[in-house]
Amino acid sequence: MLKITNLAVSFNTRNGTVTAVRDISLDVAAGQKVGIVGESGSGKSVTAFSIMRLLDDGGQNDAGTIHYQDINLLQCSEQEMRDIRGREISMVFQNPRAALNPIRKVGYQIEDVLRRHSRSTRQSARRHAIEALSAVKINDPQAVYGRYPFELSGGMCQRVVIAIALACDPRLLIADEPTTGLDITTQKVVMELIDELITERQMSAILITHDLALAAQYCDHIVVMKDGEIVESGDSVTLFATPQHAYTRKLVNATPRTGASLRDLLPSPSDAKTSQLTNKVTSLAPARPAPLLEVNNLVKTFTTASGVVNAVKDVSFTIHRNESVGLVGESGSGKSTTSSLLMRLDHCSSGQILFEGRNLLDVTTKQFAKDPRRASLQMVFQDAGDSLNPRHTAEMLIVEPIARLTNMNRKEKKARVSELAQMVGLPEALLTRYQHQLSGGQKARVGIARAIALNPKLLILDEPTAALDVSIQAIVLNLLHDLRAELDMSYLFVSHDLRVVELMCDNVMVMRHGEIIERGSAKQVLQQPQHPYTRELLAAVPQSPELQYGPNTSNRAVL
Amino acid sequence: MKNRFIAVSQRVAQTIPVVVGVVVISFLLTRALPGDPAVFFAGVAADEASIEQVRVALGLDKSLPQQFLIYVGDLLRGDLGQSLSSGQPVLSDLASRLPASLELTLFALVISCLIAIPLGVLAATRPGSWVDHVCRVLVTAGVSLPTFFTGVVLIYFFYYLTGWAPAPLGRLDFLYIEPEHVTGFYLIDSLIANDMQTFAGTLKQLILPAATLSLFTLAPIARMTRSAMISALSSDYIRTARAAGLANGTILRTYALRNALLPVITTLGMVFSFSLGANVLVERVFAWPGIGSYAVDALIGSDYAAVQGFVLAMALLFVLVNLIIDLVYSLIDPRIGFTTNE
Amino acid sequence: MNSTVTLTEPVQPSQSALQHIIYVMRENPVTLVSFMMLAVLVVIAVAGHWLAPFDPLASDSSAVLQPPSTTHWFGTDNVGRDVFSRVLVATRLDLQISVMAVSLSFVIGSLLGAVAGYWGGWLDVCLSRILDTIMAFPLFVLAMGIVAALGNTVENIIYATAIINIPFYARLIRAEVNIRRDSGFAVSARLSGNSEIRVLAFHVFPNTLPPVMVQLSLNLGWAILNAAGLSFIGLGVRPPTPEWGIMVAEGSQYIVSGEWWMAVFPGLALMFAVFTFNLLGDGLRDIVDPRTRK
User: Which CATH number covers residue C134?
Assistant: First the structure.
C-alpha cells in the first residue's frame, strides 16, 4: 500500500546541509500496523512528514520515491497532495491541545475537513461531524461539537484530533508520538482507541514512537531507526525477542521492564560494579534505625479564582536512611506539590515534617535558605535544561551551593567541582560550557552533581529522566543508583513511570487527588496491587512481548 | 457564557480605577508641583489682584484634598475652566475642535489598516519575497519617520513642486462652504448633505495630513501582522489543518488570520495612543483646526486650563478606545473569561 | 571515587558567543551596518563642535537662505547660519536627551518591574494600577502635560520622556521576571542556599536582560523622536540652540516657498539617528533570540 524506496531527506541549516534521513526503504501492506521506533534525532518524524509532504522549511527530498498505491507522492502537485491528505492518508500529532485551532469550535474544525473532501454538504456537515465525534467514543458528541479546545482535557483533544484524521475514512493513518505528554492511563485509552478504529476500518497505520514497548504492543512490524537510517526491521515479537543489530539490543535492553534489574538496562554489564553494590543497598535498608524523614498529616490547599484546591490532603509517610521511596502518580495527583513542601520551597497549610527527629517547619521557608539543614535536603529536577541557569557555565552551576553554604576557599572549591564531575561522569572539558551547549544526558549529570555537592542526606528526584532518551535514561538511573550507595543517601523518587520506580525503589507510594491510596514494598505494590487505581495504572503500562531473550539473561537478577 | 459576562463586566469595571487615576494625575500635574498654580492659571499678563482672584476661584487657598474635591466637583459639572486666549469655557472649545481631530486620526487609521494588514499577511506567507522585503523596509523606516518631518516633505512635493495638493491650511479651502453640522466629520456631513463638491474638497485637504499620519501608524500594524501571522502559520494547528488536506484559502483565512488578528487588535490600542500624540504634530504642520493645535497654542500662550483640559480629554478618549478594543477582543477570543485550573 | 558509569555520549564542539555574533553579522549584514552607523553618530556627537566648518550660532546677513553649495553644504537658514554646522552640533544634544531619559527610565522601570514581578502581591497590584494609569494617557500628550507643569526646560524634557518610558520597562521586566520566578533554575538557586534577593539579583534578573536590551535600543530611537517632537512644538530647547526638532520647525515655515534645505537636512539627520537605533534593535533581537542560537 505504501512503499518507500531509498528515501533521503536533508535540511538546510545555518551549519550547512544536514542529512536527516538517508536511504531508507520501508513497506506498509494493507491492514498492516508498522511502528517506527527511534530516539530523538533518529529521523523517524522526518520520515512521516516526508510521506505527507509536510516537511518544515529548508527540508528537501534528495532521493528516493514514496509510492502510495500507484501514486508517487514525491511527484504529486501540491493540489493533488491536498486531495490525498485527509482523504487517503491522515496524521495524528503529539501535543493534541496545540494541534487544534484554539479559537474555532471543534465541531467546525471537523466540518472543515468533511466539506473539503466533499464528504458532507453544508446541511449534512453537522450530523457527520457529530458522527465522527461519536466514532472516537466521545460520550456527549452534541455538547463537545460546540466546545473550544481549551475547554477539553488533553485526552479529549487527542480524540478530536483523531476524529479529524479519520473523518474522511483514509486508508493510512500516521500517528506521530500520539500519546507523548498524556498521562499513562490516558495513553492506554488513546492507544486502544486508535488500535480499535484502524482494525475495525481495516486501515494501515504507522506509529512513530520513542517507546519500543509501546510499538511492540500495538504494531505487527517494527522498524528501528538511528541517525537517519533503518538499522533493523522485523515483526514485533521476533525483533523484541532476538534483536540482531547492536543498537536494537541496546534499545531493548535499556527499556525498563518487569524482571530486569537496573544493570540489565546497560549495554554491557561490565561497565558497572554490579552485584555487590545492589546487595549493599538492599541489605542496609531493613536495618531501620530512627527514620530520616517523618511526614505527618501534611496538608496543602491553594485558593484560586475558581475556589479552593486541596492539592495535598493529609499525607503521612516516613523515609529511612539509605532507603529509596517511590512516589507515583499522574499529573494533578499532588506528587510535585508534596516534593516542594518537603524541600521547603512552599508553605504547608498544616502538618508536620520531622527531619532527623527535628521539626523542619520551625523556620520559615525564607529563612530555610540559610538553614544548616538546607544542605541535607536537595533535589534533582525533571527538566535538567530548565533547572540550569542559562547564563552560568557547568562549573559555576556546580559550585553555587558550595559557595553559598560552605566556607571553602577557591582551591578547595575547584577541587570539589572536579571530584563531583568525576563522580557523575562528566568530562572536565565540559565544565566551561553553558547549558545550551550540553546534551540532555550531560545536563542531567550537571544537575545531579549540583544536587550532591553538599553530601545531602535526602535527595528528591522529580522525574529525573522524563525528558531523556531511553538509552540515556538507563545510564542516568544506574548513576543515581550507585551514588545512593556511595554517598549513603535516601531518595524520594517522584515519577509517573511505574517501570522506572520498580527498578529504583525499595518502597512505593501511589498518590491520587492529593492522597496516598496505596503503599508498600515495591515488589508488593507492583506485583500484587490492592487498590483498583494502582491496578489501572499497572495495566496501562505498555506490555512488551514476553522477554525470554537477550544477552543478559544470565546476569539477570532472579526475583 | 456566564463566565464571559463576568469577564466583560470586570473589564468595564476596570476602567473606573483608571479613570480615577487619570483624574488624580491631571490634578497633580497642576496643583502639587513646585510653583504657584494661581500664577500659571492667571496667565502671563495677570497682575496681583487677578492672581488672587484666580486663587480664590480655584480654591487654591484651601488644602489639597479640598482642592481635589472642588476639582472633581467641577469636572462632574463639565467645568474644565475658562480658556484665557479664547475666553470660552475649555469644554466647549474642545468639543468644537474634537471632530476635526477625530476625523483625521480615524481616517488615517483606516487607511493604514487597509494597507498594513494585507501587506503583513503577504509578507508572512511569502517570506524572502519582494513583498517581504518591502514590508521590512517600510516597517523599519516607518517607525523612524518623525511625523512632523514627513508632513513637511509631503507638502514640499505635493504642494510646492507638483501642486497636486491644496495649500496646507486647515480642513476646507475657503472656496467651499462648511457642510451643515451633523457629526462634525466633514466627510460624513457633506455626504449627508449630498454635496459632492464639498466632499471632494474635504478629501483633498485631508489626504496629505492623513497620509502623514498613516505612514507613521503603518509600521507597527504591519510589523505585528507579519509576526503574528508567521507564528500562527508555524503553529501545530496549521500543521493539523494541512495534514487534513484543507484548502490553502481556508487555512490562511479561518485558521491563521483569525488567530493572528488577536494580537493585531491589541496593538491597535497602542497605535491609537501614538497617533493621538502624533496628531498634535501633524495638526501643527497642516494648520489643522483640531484640539492638537489648540493645545499647542495654549501651551505657548501659557493657557493653563486649556492644556489641562486637553490632557484630560485625550486620556479619557484613549481609555474609552481601549475599552472598546478589549470588548471587541473578547467577542473574538472565546478564551476570555475561562480560567483553567491547571 | 570513580564513576561507575562512563560517559557514552559524544562531546560535541561548542559554539562561543563570539562565533554566534559573527554568524548573525554575516547572515544579516544590516546589523553590521547599524553598528557602523551608531559609531558615526557617536563620533559626530563627541567631535561635532570641531568638525563643524562654521560657528553654528553665527548669523550672516549677507548669506541668508542660500541653497546648498560647496561652501554651505546644507545651505544657510533665514539669518544666514550654516545648516550643516548646526546639524552636526545638534547631534550631541539630541543624543544626550535620549540617552539620559532612557537610562533613567531603564533604572527606575527595571527596579519597579523586578520587585513587582518577583514578589507579586499588593506591591504588584499597586504598581500595575499606577502603570495602567500612566499608559492610559496618550504618551506624547502626557509628556506635553508634564513639561507644561514642570516648566519649559531641557531637563524637564528629559524627565517627561523618562516618565512616559518607565511603564515599558517596568512591564517588560515584570513579565520576564514573573515567568522565571518559579523556573527550574530559580528553584535550584534557592536550594543552593541563595536568599530571595540573591535569587532575584543574580539569577533571575540577568536572564531578563537580553529582551530588555532590544527594548533599550528601540526606545532610544523613540526618545529622540519624542524630544524632537516636543521641541518642534516649542517646548524644551529654545532657539537659537541648534536642535533637530527646532530646526525642522523653523524650516517648515519656508517649505511652502521652496527653501527645502532648512527643514530637510535636520529632518534627515533625525531620521538617520532614529533609524540607526531601530536597526540596531532589530539586529540585537536576532543576536539574543534563543531560537537562532545553538
Answer: 1.10.3720.10
